[in-house]
Amino acid sequence: MTPPKWSFSDPYPGVRRGAPNQRIAVRVAARTVLSSALMFLVAGAVLGPGILAWDKIGPNDPLVATLADVALFTVLFTDGQRANLQELRENWSLSGRALGMGMPLTMIGIAVPAHFLAGLNWPTAFLVGAILSPTDPVFAAAIVGRSDIPQRLRRLLNVESGLNDGLALPFVMIFLATAQGAGSELVKVGIELVLGLALGVGVAAGAALAWRTKILTAEPHLQPLGPLAIAVVVYAGCHLMHANPYLAAFAAGSTLATLDHVAAEEFQRFGDLLSEVTKFAALIVFGALLTPEWLSGLSWRAWVFAVIVIAAIRPAAMLLSLVRTRLTRQERLTAAWFGPKGFASVVYGLLALQTGIADRELVFDVVAVTIALSIALHSSTDAPIAKMLRVEPPDELPGCRQQAPTDEKSAAIAR
């Protein structure tokens, strides 16, 4: 039998043709309380130096810095392509509240227990707030990835989690420089951010214009590689010009999605696959750093801090930002709960650990325990909450055609 042909537009041909074991796996994953993200985190912890010691990696290992750099650039470039400015303007009422009110409130709210409970000074406390303010849709896949969840709720969570890691970046860099106590570093960071923004917008806009005017062309089956080429040029240019590569990646992705949405759509499936691979690789490395010795050395203050951040600060900030919106009470509570700390917080925490700030190990401790607890809680509650919203596991695999709601009540919910 001839194997199915692989393509960028359909990277899972065998799965989509319905092999029985893959279909069963998807059904089980839809019902289980464990997520792939949690399993990758546990795998890293098991393979790390604390248990099997197959992966003798430390926080200062060059591999950690390299992986964090490449992975964050990749994810921000992919996330930026969800920031089509025209679509954002059309759906800004809820997402704007979450990003413009909920995110700053979360950042400030986290800084308070980081200062008074964890004992960090105010600049470092705000750094922790900036690190933990982004969310990640990977750990709420049963909510974000389901076509039968109310669209406005899915769009809210997807847009928020797709943009807030990029929006948090300038605050992370500024508070990191402030925590180091160097005024010259703050100016340097500002220049790097401006250069990154200009480079990302300039390269993506130039490429989009060249494609529109047919100066640059590509074979149809190679078109998804166009955005990848832009990403490579931007990444190399940032390192040559000492610009901030992460803001450049986000700006390039957003510019491309705005000026050439066809190219962004062609790249989406391949980009999402590449993004998830780098995320899970980072989770394995992050899990390897969570050794039994590290866990036993955590103070009760770190655990209490994590619980407060997950159970109180994020929900309160989101509920305040969604006051007097058209969301139902159930939808507001769901949006408030699903603020999972994920990949961006992992990488920002690793960046802070590798700097010269005085309390970098304490910063990593409170950030790491919050992320680990968030992954465990949010990835184990997405499926139950999906059931609470009257959602059943789909009969078809992701990407296949979904059956339309059959009754008036379901149709109203889908709208």
TrEMBL record:
tRNA processing recorded as keyword: no
GO cellular component term of the entry, any: plasma membrane
Localization of this protein: Cell membrane
Feature: compositional bias, Basic and acidic residues: 406-415
Highest taxon of source: Bacteria
Region annotation (Disordered) ranges: 396-415
Protein name: Sodium/hydrogen exchanger family protein
Taxon lineage: Bacteria, Bacillati, Actinomycetota, Actinomycetes, Mycobacteriales
